[in-house]
Amino acid sequence: MNRIDDLSIISSPCAIMILESLPDEIFVEIFEYVSIQDLYRGFYSLNLRFRMIIASLTNLHGETTFERELHSLPFRFFASRITKFSMHHVDLMDLSPFSAVRSLTLYIEPNRAQCHVIRAFSHLKYLYISQRPIDHFYYSVSLPHFVFTNAYPNLYT
Q1: Can you tell me which residues the record assigns to a coiled coil (predicted)?
Q2: pLDDT of res. 130
Q3: Does 65 map to a domain?
Q4: Looking at residue 12, what is its pLDDT?
Q5: Among 154, 102, 103, 148, which Cα is nearest to 129's?
C-alpha cells in the first residue's frame, strides 16, 4: 500500500468502529498497562461504556512520586482498588483510602511513625524497601522493626 491508502484506513470510520466493537475483557487487559492517571484522564469521561469498564477494575497498580498526587482525582477515584503501590519520596502519613494494598514498594526508608501507618494495611503481603548505600543501613531504626518483630504477621518472608 502507498502512504495515502494507509492514512485513509487510519482516518476511516471503520477503524473507530473496530475499536468500539472490542469486548470489554480486551479493554480490561489493555487498561492493566495504563497508569491510573492516564486511565482516569483519558478514558473515564469518554462514554458510559468506558466509565463502566473503569468502575469495574480491581487489582490496579498505582505509582506516585509526589505527595500531592495522592490527593488528585485519579488517586482518590481508584484508591480502594489499588493493590500494588509504589511510592517515591512521599511521606506516608495518611494512606487510609488505599485499603486494598497487598504489595507496597517504597523508595524511601520509613521512620517509626510511617511503620505504624504501614501496619494499617491489613492486606499487605509484600513490602519492598529500596535501600540507599549499605553504610546507611547500619543507622536504620525502622528496618529492624520490619525484620525482627511480628508487627506485620501477614508479610511473606
Answers
A1: none
A2: 81
A3: yes
A4: 57
A5: 103
Task: Return the DSSP state at 79.
Answer: G
Q: Which residue has the cell 484522564?
A: 41
Q: What is the arithmetic mean of pLDDT over 63-72? A: 88
Q: For 5-50, what is each residue's pLDDT tens digit?
A: 555 555 555 555 577 789 999 999 999 999 999 999 999 999 999 9
- Quote the cell numbers at residue 60: 490496579
3-state secondary structure of 85: strand
CA distance 63 to 152: 23
Domain that holds residue 102: 58-148
Domain count, the chain: 1
Q: Which residue has the higher pLDDT, 111 or 59?
A: 59
Specify the residue for cell string 491489613.
122
Whether residue 53 lies inside any domain: the answer is no
What is the rounded CA–CA span in Å between residue 120 and residue 99?
A: 8
Length of the chain: 157
* H runs (alpha helix) in the chain: 3-11, 13-20, 24-31, 36-39, 48-56, 73-78, 112-119, 134-137, 143-148
Model confidence at 142, pLDDT cuts 50, 70, 90, reads: low
C-alpha closest to that of 143 among 153, 154, 130, 156? 130
Q: Which three cell numbers stand for residue 150?
A: 511480628
